Amino acid sequence: TNLHQSNPAPFNKAKFSQARRRHAWITDRGVCWCWPCLIFSIHREIYGRHLPMDISDARRQVAEIIALQDQPKYSHAIQITTPALFDRLEKAVGNIGSSINQTLPVKKCLTLKVNCHELDLDGLAGLVLEIEFPLDYPSGSTCQIHAADNGKAVNDVGSKLTTYLESFAGCECLELVLDWLSDNSSTCLSSSTNDIASNDTAGKVECYILRYNHLLSGPEHKKEKSMVDAAKKGKLQGGILWGTPGIVVVVPPSTEEDAKEYAVDSRDIGKRPDGVESVHLPERGLEEGGLGGMAQQKRGGKLKDMDTATLRTACGGDEDLLRSVLGIK
Q1: CB within 8 A of 77, min separation 6: which ones?
Q2: Contact by Cβ (8 Å): 88, 55
Q3: How far apart are CA 218 and CA 195, in angstroms?
């Protein structure tokens, strides 16, 4: 097969239906039902065993892995589990000019393992991440992550990482994953206590929490000042708690999309949040705490400078809710 050319067969409706039925029959016996796997299987059966991969994505995937392998602190932790495919892609991107827009026919996705015992992270010696780069990663999707601790699946870690990476679509994710593990090594395997949405949401509104390792107040701290300016420019509604940890609370009418965009802006500034988390806060508490709405308009559109007492008021005096917002276990 010529690696640099792909000539798939035309779409065949009968084959599509047959492939879909066959995949459903298999999945009844334990194979993944998720749409990426379903689409992958159907596409493979219709067009043959090769799938098209954009050369620019292949180039970025190879470069991302090589860059981390060249760092001593990561080199032993990263194990490529599809070495033949990686070698093939590495040779292909080296032979094709950077200005050429082509696709490469491949049979599967690039996968790797991250062995956390090689990262010297307390409490994560038994954690192994299995990471898959979809064919359209990183331009069109984020990497897929499955976690296991001493051989036992840990779905909570994978879901937290997936949520965290949603804010960085279009970016290389592998180093972000490693940084997240370092920042959350003491808590990521504990039972989640951050699911702070209540079944009873009467009188509450959905807000979004962005946690930072620390946020320092004052004009001499240029990154934090840039964050405040970016929030004002984006008309972000809410408040900011200075200190360790630093917290940004995004309130209506700002949306989840606004919060995710602000997370990207923060990362560009040099302050990386620990994802974007949804939480229902009492409407009366937000009003009494002066977050958003008319109170923010009177401040000229700036986020409200909060202290712990203000955040407690925004939580309606609920200490459990306050601890959850702060990320305290």
Answers
A1: 114, 115, 116, 118, 119, 178
A2: no
A3: 32
